[in-house]
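TA notes, week 10

Several of you asked for a full example with nothing omitted. So below is the full record: structure tokens for the whole chain, then the designed sequence directly under it. When grading your own attempts, check the secondary structure regions first.
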């Protein structure tokens, strides 16, 4: 049996413009929009760290240097906090820089998610890696990407995260057809990107978590532009499925689509409700608003 290389790195594509959140994303990267007081990008970084991944690669674009700055040291701010005796806040600021090794590569033009992942090829090298999409926030035990890593360690093949979507919404996602090979684990037969209504092979959609072998890079390099004139990661995954095999994991836990305005608001509400400092006040206020609406 071939030795399965450990997964040490994660790629976080964050080059998108975020048009659904205009006008705020004209000046603020959508990944820095706060979920209460913690940006979505930090929640995904914390998921990586909790899953044992500490070498993280941000795929950015022009105008998104703030994402890298967010995880950098802020000397003047740290000195101010120390002078004022705000030790808890100081520790929180330093933790942002210390919890992971974060580097960045540029996607020079908007050519799709597949191209964004391809831009990380040199930084990843010849080893398997994880991919996390910032629009998908997961709460689970173990964390979402850890669930995929555990399956990858057993099968040594690419693994994608799956979520069962409501009937009638299949055309909004990449949908899989596969055979169950264990609890919540499927060996995939094919992938269909946004199938026409009524023609989806299942209700299992590919969501923003992947563990991929390095063989995906030459496939991506030879993938022609697909839907929307972009290089689709799903097209490359379909080719990987046919050539090398691909698995899917139905994720356990709770998922929020923070790339959708309603999903973003629900994510903020969920994270606020679980906070010990503001949860009770938010619940009372939300119940009052519901009664008055």
């Amino acid at each position: 049996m071939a030795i399965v290389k450990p997964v040490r790195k994660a790629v976080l594509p964050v080059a998108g413009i975020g048009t659904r959140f205009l006008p705020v994303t004209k000046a603020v990267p959508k990944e820095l929009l706060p979920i209460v007081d913690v940006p979505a990008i930090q929640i995904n970084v914390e998921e990586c760290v909790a899953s044992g991944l500490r070498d993280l690669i941000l795929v950015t674009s022009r105008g998104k240097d703030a994402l890298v700055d967010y995880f950098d040291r802020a000397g003047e701010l740290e000195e101010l906090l120390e002078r004022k005796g705000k030790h808890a806040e100081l520790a929180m600021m330093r933790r942002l820089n210390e919890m992971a090794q974060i580097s960045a590569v540029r996607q020079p033009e908007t050519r799709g998610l597949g191209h964004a992942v391809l831009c990380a090829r040199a930084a990843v090298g010849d080893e398997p890696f994880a991919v996390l999409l910032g629009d998908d926030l997961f709460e689970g035990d173990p964390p979402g990407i850890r669930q995929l890593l555990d399956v990858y360690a057993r099968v040594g093949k690419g693994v994608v995260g799956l979520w069962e979507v409501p009937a009638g919404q299949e055309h909004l996602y990449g949908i899989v057809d596969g055979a169950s090979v264990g609890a919540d684990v499927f060996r995939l037969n094919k992938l269909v990107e946004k199938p026409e209504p009524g023609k989806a092979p299942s209700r299992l959609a590919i969501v923003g978590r992947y563990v991929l072998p390095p063989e995906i890079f030459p496939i991506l390099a030879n993938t022609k532009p697909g839907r929307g004139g972009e290089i689709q990661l799903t097209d490359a995954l379909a080719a990987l499925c046919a050539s090398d095999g691909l698995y899917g994991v139905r994720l356990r836990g709770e998922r929020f689509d923070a790339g959708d305005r309603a999903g973003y608001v629900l994510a903020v509400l969920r994270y606020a409700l679980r906070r010990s400092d503001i949860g009770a006040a938010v619940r009372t206020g939300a119940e009052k608003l519901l009664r008055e609406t």
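The longest helix spans residues 279-292. Use that as a sanity check on your answer.
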